[in-house]
Amino acid sequence: MTAVNTPPVVSRREWLAAIDTLRAREKAHTREGDAIAAARRRLPMTEVDPSAPLVTGDGAVPLIAAFEGRAQLFVSYHMWHDGRPAADQCEGCTFFTGQVRELSYLHQRDVTFAAFCQGPFEESDRYRRFMGWDVPWYSVPAESYERLLAGRCFGMKASYLRDGERVYETYWTTGRGVEPLASSYGILDMTVHGRQETWEDSPPGWPQPYETRGQQFRKDGRPTAQWARIAAGHDDDLHSGQPGTDRSGCCS
């Protein structure tokens, strides 16, 4: 293991005093987050077409069906590269979508989570099964792009509210705004080496091997999470035999 610099070693009393000082900042950060969430709950909303079609394994369904009878819907818009193998799929979307696993707590609060994928359903659903994800999975056909994305790009996350037969979009975000989906980042932020990404303000000598143009989510040429699936013997063959379509604009 390559030697790296480490924090100074102090007595437990000094260590606890330093943590107490930081804790005041952490609590202020938490309270500010609460205030921002309160403002988010007070945002206006905009109506969207509840009949916008989505594709499932059983054919087309309207957007409103994705609520599964609940009042709220949270959508992870998953980018896709048509005809590409699993190794070439979006590492950012794989990172964020793949960390949402236990849905019962959301259901308890009348919220449905679903992934809306950019690619053809049969192809992207093979990827879902290869990754071992069991979240509700839909493909967004081109005819629904404008009705749902309205000029934005896949990689975003959006929240919807259902009022009877009408559907409203209440919030959306992209870029670093989607980080609440990533529990791994939250854990890494509490470790001494952090995320080990080049943008972080870390002391000299701290390991920072990862840039932030997708490399932080890849290992040996494929999204990092795929290696465990391959080791378990899962089939990652997504080839369709047709030339792929290069989709750009992942917002993750």
Topology record:
Elements lengths: L11 H30 L4 E3 L4 E4 L2 E4 L9 E7 L12 H7 L6 H5 L2 E7 L3 H11 L5 E3 L5 H5 L7 E7 L2 E8 L9 H6 L29 E2 L2 E2 L2 H6 L21
Parallel strand pairs: 4-5, 5-6
Antiparallel strand pairs: 1-8, 2-3, 4-7, 7-8, 9-10
Would you kindly provide a written description of the structure presented here, covering whatever features stand out?
- This protein has 252 residues and is an alpha+beta fold.
- The chain has seven helices and ten strands.
- Strand 2 (53-56) and strand 3 (59-62) form a beta hairpin.
- Mean pLDDT is 93; it is low at 240-252.
Provide key terms for this protein.
7 helices, two-stranded antiparallel ribbon, globular, alpha+beta, 252 residues, 6-stranded mixed beta sheet, 28% helix
Q: What's this model, at a glance?
A:
Pfam families: DUF899. With 252 residues, the protein is α+β, with helices and mostly antiparallel strands.
Q: Write down how many β-strands occur, each being a DSSP E stretch of 2 or more residues.
A: 10
Radius of gyration: 21 Å
Number of helices: 7
Please provide the ordered H/E string of secondary-structure elements: HEEEEHHEHEHEEHEEH
Low-confidence stretches: 240-252
Strand count, sense and barrel status of the largest sheet are: 6 strands, mixed
The CA-CA distance between the termini, in Å, is: 31 Å
| Spatial strand order of the main sheet | 1-8-7-4-5-6
Strand content: 15-25%
Structural category: alpha+beta
- The overall pLDDT average reads 93
> What characteristic shape results from the CA principal axes?
globular
Residues in helix, %: 25-40%
InterPro entries: DUF899_thioredox (IPR010296)
Region (Disordered): 197-252
Protein name: DUF899 family protein
Pfam families: DUF899
